[in-house]
Amino acid sequence: MTTTPRRRIAFYSHDTQGLGHIRRNLALAAAMVAAEPRTDVLVLTGAPQATALPLPPNTEIVTVPTVAKDGEGGYAAGTFAMDLSAVLALRSDLITSALVAFAPDVVVVDKVARGLDGELEQALEALSDVRGHTTGERPRVVLGLRDVLDDPLTAIREWREARTTQAIRDHYAEVWVYGDRSVVDVVADYDLPRAVATKVRYTGYLAEGRGEGLLAPRDEPRRRPVPRPYVLCMVGGGQDGYDTALAFARAGYPDGHTGVIATGPYMQPALRRRLTAIAAERDDLLVRDFVTNTLDLIGGAEAVVSMGGYNTVCEVLAEDVPALVVPRVRPRQEQLVRAERLQDLGLVDTVHPDDVTPEQLGTWLSDAVTSSSTRDHDAVALDGLRRVPDLVAGLQPATAPHLDDLQEMAS
């Protein structure tokens, strides 16, 4: 009796700041494994902290040497005393070797079609000679984009400078947009050419079902339960957002409520200690650093103050918790655009980070926990994680470019 080979799916995310890309990939992986348990998943990431996150079954993480992003959006080696070009060359070799050896049937690339500064190009070329473990065909490569890339002018410029259209034409079967066209029309807002637009599929936000199918790490620390009711402040990975966390630490909370701050694993130790010192002087404030069960923490809160990262916003929308979004505004406008678009739909409140004060947060928290207003659950599609397995099943093998695409490439 013959057995059907196990399907293999690989994910790549460059991960130079925070854990947003890798968390999105793990949510997608969990949905794919749940839909087809005979799936093995290889995740390639530049974030070593990813190994402490909950993983789907049958999933392994390979981390490559870190690259760090500075406050102006520039890059440098994160750990090694090496030039950036040398680190990227090392990363490229490791990524290529891993993908070729794994022989995936599907590869999902997060956000950057050519990889960080082109580090994925070598692997994309090599995959053209690889045959997928199950299909026996060339791996089908998908580019996954969050709902917002940046403000349109910046996104269009960076798209062209990175030669993203050429990479999509040469290597990608489809482009999945993890959002709702009614919030951001990626094709129109970013003036994407026809060769790309025909490959775009809107999945809806990766919100509902998030956290399902993920297994807690074996060394998950045991923590005492957070006293309920509580209000929550989350600042993503913690590289920025400290001013918001400090304002929250000094704010007044609704009667009978505890305040909880999740600092993220990247917050500077001195800043985390300052927040902890403030909490030690209050009996209604807890500070936690690296929280792996963010969905449970959000779901148990009466109200949430958070940054505007894609994953946190998805979790807030999925749990239907009142949310005040304080977006990152530098060096990218992505979070600001997302917050303003969702506020226009009545799904969140938002305030510019330069305008945040303890008094303002205290007032908003008190209003949020007593308000009876509800959000329109049908305003945007939140079921992307349920749609993605069907998109995987429907992927077609790469074909030669259409005549119209060849003419567009020559123009």
TrEMBL record:
Signal peptide: none annotated. It holds the Pfam family Glyco_tran_28_C. InterPro entries: Glyco_trans_28_C. One of its GO terms (molecular function) is hexosyltransferase activity. Residues 283-374 form the Glycosyl transferase family 28 C-terminal domain. PANTHER family: SLL1722 PROTEIN, UDP-N-ACETYLGLUCOSAMINE--N-ACETYLMURAMYL-(PENTAPEPTIDE) PYROPHOSPHORYL-UNDECAPRENOL N-ACETYLGLUCOSAMINE TRANSFERASE 1. This is Glycosyl transferase family 28 C-terminal domain-containing protein. The lineage of its organism: Bacteria, Bacillati, Actinomycetota, Actinomycetes, Micrococcales.
